[in-house]
Amino acid sequence: MKTSARNELSGMITEVKSGGVMSEVIIKINDEIEICATITNDAKESLALSVGGSISAIIKSSLVILSKERVYASARNNIKTLVTEVIKGAVNSEVKLKIADKSLCAIVTNDAIEDLQIKKNDSVYAIFKASSVILVA
User: Fold this and answer.
1) I want to staple 105 with a disulfide (CB 3.0 to 4.6 A). Which of 32, 34, 61, 86 is the partner?
2) Residue 4: its pLDDT value, please?
């Protein structure tokens, strides 16, 4: 399956917690990264998710927020990364990030790049909500 989303991380499901309408799925990407996703219970059943199963997490690059410091907020995913490249456009910049052997991409405004002074080799946190993660089995 091809998508327009820039970020796809594959891993193993380590936990599934179901509520009345939604389920929380924890995915171990590698020894350094865990991602939390929330999906409907219907989606959980449709994908036949279970602990130990393989899954891919897709995150749209425009949904990734960057911070120079760890932020304690309601967003469940807060991953320390390394900036490998900043590509400036007319309005927005593409920020390529590395986490161990994986990569992420964020699209942020040029103003944000300037305000945070984000540049190559900086450590930044990639932040995104669990509800922003799309799962593909």
Assistant:
1) 61
2) 83
* Euclidean distance between CA atoms 105 and 86, whole angstroms: 10
Sheet containing 65-67: order of strands: 65-67, 123-128, 77-88, 92-99, 102-109
For the chain, domains (ranges, CATH) are 7-136 (2.40.50.100)
Average pLDDT, the chain: 96
What is the C-alpha separation between 124 and 115, in angstroms, rounded?
Answer: 13
Cα dihedral 37→121→119→80 (10° resolution): 20
Q: Rounded to whole angstroms, how far apart are CA atoms 126 and 128?
A: 7
Q: Name every residue whose Cβ is closer than 8 Å to that of residue 90 and which is 6 or more positions away in sequence.
A: none
In sequence order, the β-bridge partners of residue 110 are none
